């Protein structure tokens, strides 16, 4: 990844060359992201703490690595709206560690993105602050991962629910950085009134106000974060879309642990959420088809907004996005 130095820095270099002086290493005073701490939790898992100028705070990130050495690609996995602060849900609920254990790829799992849509917020929010996720994920983190974990510069994205929208938005806005994206039960297009309402509700569940994220309804920021308005950037990429119809299936009836509500209430909520994601994702799929852009179809006749289905979708999602790596 190339960095552009400021015109002031270039002028300083020119002056130093003229007078035969050597500039100090920190001549460019702009802050750089750096890995401040490293925690080796297992042979295949390292947690890092990144001092992020854009986020203005330390950012904890899990990196799963293969047993083999040498350069390898990287997949960035994004949580949904209920993302925990401690460890990515893809680790604790999605079993990503087990799934990727034998694969020659870095798996990067940022923590603490609940309700933020992994985007740059325009104004400070009373609850969520002013996160700058897009800058962190695209301009700061990749270079650190590549240098510290033998990344080869080939990247892709997998996200669920809120993270599925973010995966497609990041791909559409940074097509040179990513080779593909997978959305599991997400809603990639956001600029029409119905989908804007879905996004606002998702942000509000975390106590935030989406006006502080992308502004009022119909603003240019909503339009610019809608991948349906940037279909040309998705052409030639490896795309995966999945969602269930909301109909309750066998996996919803199996015993689960760690639920705070009765199973019936969990299934009812998951059914409604998934129906919305299904409608939205199908609409986006039709837009891709209309533009002649291929994608892999993972739509299911049954399934709610829940981890058993996302774990089941992960192999197909990976099979699709890994083609570009």
Radius of gyration from the CA trace?
Answer: 20 Å
* Shape call: globular
CATH class of the largest domain: Alpha Beta
State the end-to-end distance: 17 Å
Could you give the count of β-strands? 9
Q: Would you tell me which CATH topology of the largest domain applies? A: Rossmann fold
The share of residues in helices is 25-40%
Total helical segments = 12
The ordered H/E elements are HEEEEHHEHEHEHHHHEHHEH
Nearest-integer average pLDDT? 88
Low-confidence stretches: 1-28
Task: Assign the structural class, choosing from mainly alpha, mainly beta, alpha/beta, alpha+beta, or little secondary structure.
Answer: alpha/beta
CATH architecture of the largest domain: 3-Layer(aba) Sandwich
Q: Give the strand content.
A: 15-25%
The number of domains: 2
User: For the largest beta sheet, what order do the strands appear in spatially?
Assistant: 1-2-3-5-4-6-7-8-9
Tell me the major beta sheet.
Answer: 9 strands, mixed
CATH superfamily of the largest domain: Alpha/Beta hydrolase fold, catalytic domain
Description:
- With 325 residues, the protein is an alpha/beta fold.
- The chain has two domains: 1-30, no CATH class; 33-324, Alpha/Beta hydrolase fold, catalytic domain (Rossmann fold).
- The chain is built from twelve helices and nine strands.
- The chain has helices at residues 7-19, 89-92, 96-100, 133-148, 162-173, 193-205, 211-214, 220-224, 231-234, 250-253, 263-290, 307-321, and strands at residues 34-42, 45-52, 57-64, 72-78, 106-110, 151-160, 178-184, 238-244, 296-300.
- It has a nine-stranded mixed β-sheet, sandwiched between helices.
- Mean pLDDT is 88; it is low at 1-28.
């Amino acid at each position: 990844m190339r960095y552009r130095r400021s015109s002031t820095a270039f002028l300083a270099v020119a002056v130093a060359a003229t007078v035969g002086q050597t500039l100090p290493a920190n001549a460019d005073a702009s802050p750089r992201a750096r890995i401040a701490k490293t925690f080796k939790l297992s042979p295949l898992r390292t947690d890092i703490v990144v001092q992020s100028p854009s986020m203005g705070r330390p950012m904890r990130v899990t990196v799963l690595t293969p047993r083999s050495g040498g350069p390898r690609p990287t997949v960035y996995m994004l949580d949904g709206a209920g993302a925990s602060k401690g460890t990515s849900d893809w680790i604790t609920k999605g079993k990503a560690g087990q799934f990727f254990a034998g694969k020659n790829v870095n798996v990067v799992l940022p923590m603490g993105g609940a309700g933020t849509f992994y985007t740059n917020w325009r104004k400070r929010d009373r609850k969520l602050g002013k996160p700058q996720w897009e800058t962190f994920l695209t301009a700061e983190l990749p270079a650190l991962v590549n240098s510290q974990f033998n990344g080869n510069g080939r990247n892709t994205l997998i996200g669920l629910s809120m993270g599925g929208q973010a995966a497609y938005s990041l791909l559409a806005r940074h097509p040179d950085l990513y080779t593909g994206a997978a959305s599991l039960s997400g809603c990639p297009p956001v600029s029409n009134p119905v989908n804007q309402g879905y996004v606002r509700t998702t942000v509000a569940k975390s106590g935030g106000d989406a006006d502080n994220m992308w502004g009022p309804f119909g603003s240019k920021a909503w339009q610019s974060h809608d991948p349906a308005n940037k279909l040309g950037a998705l052409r030639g990429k490896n795309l995966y879309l999945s969602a269930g119809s909301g109909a309750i299936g066998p996996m919803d009836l199996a015993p689960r642990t760690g639920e705070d509500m009765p199973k019936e209430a969990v299934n009812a909520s998951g059914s409604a959420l998934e129906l919305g994601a299904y409608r939205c994702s199908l609409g986006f799929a039709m837009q891709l088809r209309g533009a002649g852009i291929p994608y892999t179809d993972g739509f299911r006749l049954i399934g709610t907004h829940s981890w058993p289905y996302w774990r089941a979708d992960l192999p197909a999602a990976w099979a699709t996005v890994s083609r570009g790596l």
